[in-house]
Design a protein that fits this description.
Blueprint (H helix, E strand, L loop, with lengths): L4 E4 L1 H5 L9 H13 L4 E6 L12 H7 L7 E5 L2 H9 L4 E7 L2 H8 L3 H18 L2 E7 L3 E2 L3 E2 L2 H13 L4 E6 L6 H14 L4 E6 L6 H10 L4 E4 L19 H10 L8 H15 L7 H10 L6
Parallel strand pairs: 1-2, 1-10, 2-3, 3-4, 4-5, 5-8, 8-9, 9-10
Antiparallel strand pairs: 6-7
Helix pairs in contact: 2-3, 2-11, 7-8, 8-9, 10-11
Bound molecules: coenzyme A (COA) and zinc ion.
């Protein structure tokens, strides 16, 4: 059976933009629920300035509390300091973010893209020594809220520079949800073909209702790793217009119904989606949740 690998970024991307701040205990409950539902990897938090992103304060505490499952956790970092904090908290999987546009990089991590690249190169050397797996995330890979459409050549070039740094796992992120299936194919096909020994993850936001279609286009281009957010939570505080990620429940339902295994129990995932909605005081997003609830009420099994 064909297989895809989902990383639920709800406890990071999903929570970083919420008006309601969750306690570390509540965040722990969400991460634990996602792991119990069979989600292979969970982005549990971010080692960022608590002044810049108050919702991510205490991410180190969270990681330390989850030490026994740390191989299934991932943490986002904006810079070298973030890497040190992540490593000291026992992180085994780290994602360093870099933006395809210089303006967005400045707004997000307060340095030029070139400086981020230099830091990522140094972090990669350190990560190898520490036996930490480093992934680089190219944000605003299709469109930047400040500079407009991102040229394919710019992403290809950044991917090549990351490859030169030794990076072999690259996340291509549609931070503001502006991609469409054709644009996804046009970018992901040359990336997958051109960097045959790189693992690509695609990260879609559902701002224009194209999250699922974009994920399918990426899958058709050969991508097997996807980010999604339980309950469709999400958004970036530094990217105007960014709304929630594609809902994990929707992605799981789509792939499972296509006969592609995710290893995730949809019903258990829905319980976590409900919990996330209750904690954040937001309605649970995505479409699969509502549909499946109706099916369950009628006593129908998923097929
Ligand atoms: N985590 C926690 N604290 C950090 C840090 C990190 N990764 N990097 C720097 N700091 C601290 C510094 O130690 C310093 O602390 P001090 O005031 O006690 O001396 C303070 O933050 C300022 O350091 P500086 O290097 O000047 O940072 P800055 O103010 O330019 O902010 C970032 C840079 C990257 C830390 C900040 O913009 C940030 O955290 N952004 C978050 C980006 C994000 O999460 N985006 C959404 C996801 S893509
Ligand atoms: Zn995102």
């Amino acid at each position: 059976m064909d297989q895809v690998f989902l990383c639920d970024v709800g406890p990071r991307d999903g929570l970083q933009n919420q008006a309601t701040l969750l306690s570390v205990q509540q965040r722990l409950q969400l991460v634990d629920g996602l792991l119990q539902a069979g989600v292979p990897l969970v982005e549990a938090g971010a080692m960022v300035s608590p002044k810049a992103v108050p919702a991510m304060a205490g991410s180190d505490e969270l990681l330390l509390a989850l030490a026994d499952v740390k191989s299934r956790l991932q943490v986002l970092i904006p810079n070298a300091r973030g890497y040190q904090l992540a490593r000291d908290a026992g992180a085994e999987n780290v994602v360093a973010v870099i933006c395809a546009s210089n303006t967005m990089n400045q707004k997000n991590v307060r340095m030029d893209t070139l400086d981020s690249l230099t830091q990522i190169s140094q972090i990669q050397q350190q990560a190898l020594a520490d036996k930490v797996r480093l992934q680089a995330c190219i944000a605003v890979a299709w469109e930047c809220p400040f500079e407009g459409r991102t040229p394919i050549a710019a992403v290809m070039s950044l991917a090549a520079q990351l490859y030169e740094c030794g990076i072999r796992h690259i996340n291509i992120a549609d931070t503001i949800g502006a991609a469409n299936p054709k644009a996804v194919k046009d970018l992901m096909q040359p990336l997958v073909r051109g960097f045959y020994d790189v693992t690509f993850t695609c990260h879609f936001h559902d701002t224009r209702a194209m999250g699922l279609a974009n994920a399918f286009a990426a899958y058709e281009a050969g991508v097997k790793h996807f980010d999604a957010s339980v309950g469709g939570l999400g958004g970036c505080p530094f990217a105007p217009g960014a709304t929630g990620n594609v809902a994990s429940e929707d992605l799981v339902m789509m792939f499972e119904q296509m006969g592609v295994s995710t290893g995730i129990d949809l019903e258990q995932l829905m319980v976590v989606g409900q919990l996330a909605g209750d904690f954040t005081e937001q309605p649970t997003g995505g479409r699969a949740h509502k549909w499946r609830m109706l099916q369950l009420e009628k006593g129908r099994t998923l097929c």
